[in-house]
Structure formats: structure tokens, C-alpha cells
Amino acid sequence: MDPTGESASTAAEPMSPHPVLPAYFDDLPARGPMVDRLFDDTAAHYDRITGLLSFGSGGRYRREVLEQAGVQPGQRVLDLACGTGQVSEAAARLVGAGGAVLGVDPSAGMLAVAVAKMRRLREAEPRTGPFRAIAGGAEALPLSDQSVDVVTMGYALRHVPDLVGAFREMRRVLRPGGRVVVMEISAPANPLLRWPLKAYLRGVVPPLSRWITGDPRSRTLMAYYWDTMEHCVPPSAIQAAMAAAGLVAVERRRLWGTFSNYLARSPKQRND
To answer: In which domain of life is the source organism classified (predicted)?
Structure first.
């Protein structure tokens, strides 16, 4: 038995952020390739269509979250599941030329957009931190132990194969005392908030995305966005997964009942 009272085999089972969604994939192993294809196919439109969801989650909001979490000049930041570099952009401005941002993502299409965006940023604002894109996933980060000061993740936790495994990898690459900052969105528990949000995100945004981009895959992406929100494990389970991975000072900060910022630290004393 482990300290939680579970058997070793049970404790080792992956903790998926949501169950199988038959409209998109038939089993959990099929989810990763499906998600990668979906993001590759929609990378060129991604920033445009996610602008439809910007209930305070734009560039200013991302920067404020990172500032409040303590991201500082000179730090080395890993932006995990960086996508098109929306969080990377905010981090690069905060760490400055003396710091650095590493963007890791399994989608080649999203990384290509991020590289182009971050190149334009550095040309326009030379004092921002340099950016390096790395292909990889949350389950096996292509980084050395204790090599970064901060790990960020913006609205991608619902796509990892194993919550505890992802948080363990974050802890592994963090220097002692390093910070984890995960921004996420979840379906409100209050039905008075939940149903209007669902009507917008599931009923309006997908067809509007299709109309704006002319690409039917954009509709699929935004329908999947809500469906993963609706079926995601509760915030308490995410906090428990962070603690189970060995992170400390775990907390959740909420905004408007749907935005959550999960914060934690790597232990200052490492025993592994």
C-alpha cells in the first residue's frame, strides 16, 4: 500500500483529466493523436478563434497572472503546451533579455506559429526574453532535472494523458522552490452560470468559428473545447494531483466562477 491506502497498481494508473468522449475518440490512447491533429489543423486560425473566448483571458490577463505568481526578470520559464505562444509572449516580457522562455508542445503546427510570433515580438521589443521551441509532451519533458525556475501552462491541462504524471514532470524539471502556474477554465458548478456559458461556448462559438475562418475543423476544435471543460475532473482533483506529484503550497485562485489559476511550488529540499 502507498500512503494514501491504494495498492501500487491502482496508484500507478494514469489520472486522465476527463473520460473517453466518443464523439472524438474511442479510447484514451487515441486521444493524444486526435488532439495533435486537431491543433495542427487549426493552428493558423487558433489565435483568431480563441479571441472569441476572451472573457478577461487575453494578453493583459495572462501577464497579470504571471506577475502575481512571481515571474521575475532573469528567470528561465518553461511554457508547457505552449500552443501558439500566448503565455510565452507574456512570460518573455516579464523575464526580459536576461531570462529565457522554452516552449514545449506536441503540435508542430502550433510550434511553428509560436516561433514566428515570438520572433516578431523580439524584433519589436528587443528587451524581451529569447524563445526556444521544443517538440514534446507533458508526460516526458525533453528537459534536464532542475533546469527551470517556473513552469506555466495555459488552458491545456485538459489535454494531458495523466495529471499526476504531468505534475511529476513539472516538479522534476523545476529547481528547488520553483513555481508552477497553471491557468485553466472549467464549467461552473452553479447552473445559473453554467447554462448561459454552455449556450455561448457550445452553441455559439463553434459555428461562429467555422463562419469566421471558413474551416469546419475550427468548429470541431471549439466544440471539443467545451466538451472537455464539461467533463473535466473537478478542481479539487487537480489540486490533489498536484499534491500527489510532490508539489507543495498548492492553491487555487478563482475568477468569475469559471477561470482557475492553480499555483504550487517544488519543494525547497529535494529527496529524489
So the answer is: Bacteria
